[in-house]
Amino acid sequence: MRSIKYAVKGSSLWLFVMVFCVIFTGAPRARGAELTGDNLAVFITGLSGGHQFQAYMDEAVGQLQEVLLANAYARERMIRFSESQDGELQWGKNVPARVDRLEPFMTRVAERTKSYENVFVFIAGHANGRDEEAKFHLGGEDVSYETLIRWIDGIPAERLILILAAPQGEVWIRSLSGPGRVLIVGNGFREFDFLPTLFLRLFPEIFRELSEAAEAEGIGSISLRDVFIETQTRVQEWYRVNGLHPTEVALIDADGDQRGETLMELQDGEDVPAVKSILFKIPGGSNHERSDKNR
Asked: How far from 265 is each of 121, 138, 229, 259, 273, CA to CA, in Å?
């Protein structure tokens, strides 16, 4: 397996805030269940640098796909770009994570005349550099954050969810924050160029756990805010138990402030109405809603 190329170091939106929400329901439906909604899911996992990281990425994608399939995302509208694949560019398939495969796909998606109802993007991998000039490591030629962000920004979507397990997530929030978008980045620091491993492992796992628990309890829905808080609570607990200074500080942005909020800000009761009222509704899922006072 190819090693990574560089060493990896240790207001105006209020109306949108009040109405924007998407609910994720619990257990997967039967494969033949009717799907509604025009949804797209894109998974981009770069060079892993080793078998263990590759395993983490594969498991994360599998868990996320399981939840999305239960929420009106068709496998035929999912595509993954991965270093371990060597297939043709087809919907529902895994294809090589290379610029010559990503660019034509992203260009074609951007040319779509009708917006997708919901777009889910998951990106995980190593990168080296600073801000938009950072290079995300792929097979063959690397791709800059600036280019990746431009590709994601160009996807026509009524609602966009981005989950990023890569260095310098603050750059992505600053560049992609806006109406109709929820961005969760595993490492918000600009100073650290490393893959947020705990976030990569825990966020998809907790996403699935909470979905299944909600279904079992008859709640029928969860919010990404809940997933974010539980994930970061466990991440920070891991650092505490091991006597380490936390170097994974995730951010969630849903109000378009280009800043994002940390777990501490949410726990301290900072007025973040956009985050507090996120209840993601996926077409075909449950219409059950919960108010903030019942959380």
From this structure: 25, 34, 11, 12, 12
